[in-house]
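Researcher: For the record, we're logging two predictions in this thread. I'll number them. Prediction 1 follows.
Model: Prediction 1, sequence and structure:
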Amino acid sequence: MENFMMPGNPRYQPLSLVEFFGYDHLVRPMIELELALLDSLAEVKIIPAKLLKSLSPVTRQSLLRITTTEIDEQERKTRHDVKALTDVMMERLPSDTEGLKPWIHFSATSFDIRDSAMILLYRRSYEEVVRRTLKTVLVLMVEKVERYAKTPQIGRTHGKHAMPITAGFWLATILARWLDCALRLNEKADSLVGKFTGIVGAYNAQLLFGLTKQGISPTFEERVLRKVGLEPALISTQILPPEPLDDFLHAYVLLSGALAQFARDCRHLMRSEIGEVREQFTGKQTGSSTAPHKRNPITYENIEGIHILVRNAYQNVLANLNSEHQRDLVGSSVSRQFPEIVVLTQYQLEQTLKVIQTMEIDETALQKNLAQEKHIFMSEALQLALRQAGFEGDAHAFINHEVVPKATPSKPIHQVILEMHKLDAIRERIPIHVWHALENPLSYTGRAEQKALEVAHATQEYLERDSISI
């Protein structure tokens, strides 16, 4: 039976990534690199072209079907995973390709194969799955931002009502972060590199046996890596320098955090006393094991909780920054868990995609919440108006201690100061348009609508430039 488990809890493993990180598929790019090595050896005339032709497409496909589980069985004898791989490849070769056996893994070291293979998995999984999912999420969020760009919502700081914004503005603050994450991931994915430099990174065997020559381009390393779509690192030891991959995985952590921010906002806005956001309740879904009436924000909670796992998983990456001299084995077991960061973030993305498609914003609740403190939330505008008009003293303290306590829903703060005759001269110097705003607090949304649409437009421009189809 094939094993398609991925790193981490199977509860949070999206099927979309099994092709890349499913356990029995992990060895496939390693085999691709061994085949690229054979092809490159023929190109530089180390092995005869006729011999390479014996490696038929059918045989290549047979080799690519070798599973990680098969390698594990051989590794129990070799105590070395890449040696186990080359042994199984040799066993799988038909009799008419026997002459190729001495050339499998020729001049390579294990991490020429394994490090570069993992880079292939990270890049391919991003380009073929994660990037497409993120693009779909961006498309849907643009629609939400544009739809609610003008819809007033109370802005909150420290969990308290502050000033009006719009629901589209709130969503745009999330969308802008997602867009930034998409751009960063694209950049970091393009920066991922491979290696084919030998046991200490100095091309010792390649130079001695004529695989590469000083000053000749392309180098043998470039030949091998370019066959699988990679460029080489500027320099390496037996292992790749950690920074390009660490930066790439950190970009995932940032995306995970931005997804968690959306989830946190939504689950708070789903509170019974707020009710501005609804998560669709489907089919036979149950909110509580004992209280049938409950409608819990389970998906949003799940998305936010996964970020804790992603953040913690990245600690393994930071712990793996250093090795002894040209390489030791301490980091090997640690790095095998790195794909968990990708797996978990893709799970978050797919959950976000699910909720954003059915997410509902309750405009009645928005209006109700705006009305709660509509009589006092223009305090900022009023104290600034008094200061501009020449109020003597501390206008902020005056509004805070003498005006706000007297305000009621039927007598908002601007009406309170109308009854204060000591302010007659000051009131006359307050511009008409400011008075109009004080009398119409729901219009005090600043540039919320315009900024929301700016973010939507910037995201739309990115989506149109991005050649990846969804």
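Researcher: Logged. Prediction 2.
Model: Prediction 2, sequence and structure:
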Amino acid sequence: LYTVRYNVVDAASNAALEVTRAVNVVDTTPPVITRLGDETVTVECGSAYTDAGATATDSCGGDRTSAIVTANPVNTAVPGAYTVRYNVSDAAANAAAEVTRTVNVTDTTPPVITLLGNSTVTVECNAAYTDEGATASDICDGNLTASITTTNPVDTAVPGAYTVRYNVSDGAANSAAEATRTVNVVDTVPPVITRLGDALVNVECGDTYTDAGATATDVCDGDLTASIAVVESVNMSVPGIYLVTYNVSDAALNAATEVTRIVNVADTTPPAITLVGDDTVSVECKDAYVDAGATATDACGGDLTASIVVTNPVNTSIPGAYTVRYNVSDAAANAATEATRTVNVVDTTPPAITLLGNATVNVECGNTYVDTGATASDVCGGNLTSAIVTVSNVNTGAVDSYMVTYNVSDASSNPAPEVTRTVNVVDTTAPVLTINGPSSVLIECGAVEEYQDLGATAWDNCDGDLTGSVLADTSSVDVNAVGAYIVTYNVSDDATNPALMATRTVNVVDTEEPEIMLLGANPATVECGDSYLSPGAFAWDLCDGNITAAISVDASLVDTSVLGLYTVSYSVSDSEGNSAEIIRDVEVVDTEPPVIMLLGANPATVECGDLYTDAGATALDACGGDMTSAIVLVNNVVTAVAGAYSVTYDVTDGEGNAAPQAVRLVNVVDTTAPVLTLLGNAYVEVEQGSVYTDAGATATDACEGILNASIIVGGDTVDTDTVGTYIVTYNVQDRFGNAAAEITREVVVTDAPDPLTVTPLSDISLEEGASYDWSVIATNGIGEITYQWQRLEGLEYVNVEDGPFGAGEYAGATTHTLRFLPFTKTMAGTYRVEVTDDRMTVYAGPADVIYVPPFIPAAGAFGLIAFAAAAALVGVAGLRRRK
């Protein structure tokens, strides 16, 4: 309460009655609370919450911040929404309007799983595997070990690498990064081989050896008997000591200890000799004795025939009984039982008589006969010629047949077969004929009616003149037929010896020429190109008669391929060369049209879109010949459009004769399927949850061109929300129903990997000249991870570069650690880190680098308050920038 006083004095110093006013200064305005920081704050469960506080001012009381009553129920251990309340009253008990802040405690941090024991464990096949488990902790929920879900596929009966998986989620459904343990089930224990039968086996050489075998077992693979590798080199034909080995490895290539067996092959059996042929043989004296031999076999040594020792005393020159002996021993000195053969040399062959000279001899009657004799030989007795007994009664004075005999015996009284010679006393000399007159006579055909021969004489040394007995044969002579005729003369003596036949040649000749008459028209007409056939002619000869068949026709001048007038000559000669000739005129004319012949198929078929090359045609004219080059071809085939087309062919010869038109039907067909081509890869991988856009395909057809709009895409529908393999099919047909070969694309939807994450970037405060390493850590990156530190300049972030900046210096601007070497005030500001892998880009920050002055001025309470307010404003600005 205040009193305002009013006084005055006039000029006469009269003082007025004092007037007063009571002024009551009251305080009814409440203070004003100003919240520092955001109205709503989110804090992670388990972290420390530091309230930003508030300030309070009162129009009367001034700064009332210290009097603020803060109710802070925030419990960061329990997620939820909390309200922090700020209240204050001034000295006049005016209460400020309550200010509140909502603090949301959230749980976004996943639990952490920690393996117990090693991340990679090795266990022997078929051993028991007990997993060591894992622990799980959560910032908010604490120990979650009991909630871990373990997936354990380990099968110790099957070697391999197994993955045991551990997963857990906290109460806020935050899933921990899956932890895994690799359990390698291995097989390092080798199998065991057990030999069946004895370790030492004795067998006789040549017998059959059957191995008793072995068994094999393995801890992991079980019975491996069938896999045993047996190496057996036992040779039952060769005595000696042999080793049989047994080896086996399991599926893990663990080799068992080798097991062996000794096989002793021995030889105690002697060979056996077998005679070839009879054991008693007879051989004729002086014959060559070839022993049939023997064979020898040994159970161990096999065929010993070549080793047989043969003792052979046989002498075939001396009859008698001989013994041939056979012996042999094998390589082990086992001697075979001796074999023998008896060979009897005998003489049963009689001597042989050989005639000298012929067996039959002819002697001319009255000549002297001298016998040429014979020789005799015996296989065993040698030359017995001197012992031959010869008997001969030949009489050359009388014609007859006589016999001479030859006989002899050897020392063993073997008589030789009798040999004989026939001696014939004969008369073999013939008479001699002589013709009268010349040996050749010439007669003109028809000049005489009968041939008169001059005859012949005959003489024989024994019988004298035989002319009266000569036989002359003139029957072949025909005086009315041209030719050479033979007259023969023959005679024989009383011994029927015929004389050498004598002959005379009678030549009947013709010198008159024949006569020719034409048959058919003269002159004649023939079509150009036709063959000219002559109607012929008739020919007659006084001596030869009808000689039409001998007419020679010369039509060589007639060329029916060229129009014109030609001559044909007819000539004939009789058997004596007397000739006659006559001429016919022949005119070649052209009245026939050419003929067109198509080449190739008719109708023809061509594939739509292909080039049609017409097979063409040929044209022949009887007169003009090959007129192919003159053909007029009209071709309206369009291979781009399927359908039926015709090609026409026309030609006219030089005489104006037009050939009938030839037509070829050409069918343009479409039997070729379109061709599909994939756009993009045939194998595509898509991450789960992403969008799959098919690259499609193209289709072209030789006839219809591009058919992209007709492609039917089928097969599986790619569901990128479901991991799996999908086959997308592409098909198309042209309008003729030709289906392209189906093409496919394999689309594999793969598990989406965890996203790239980076640790938060926190504010830092640095003094001038300080050195500091500011770091972040990136996890779950795919491929190469790159870092780029950036600084906010104005409204944009600019890449930080290594090197000087003001009075300071940066290093590691493209690594996970930015170094201030050193820090200066000009480096203060807002920063962030751009982190990139092969899939995505994330940011850590923004966060502030705050410059801290080296000292705070001593400015009293007001100075401290001002500094605190300034720092608070900087913090608020930083928070706003981070938002």
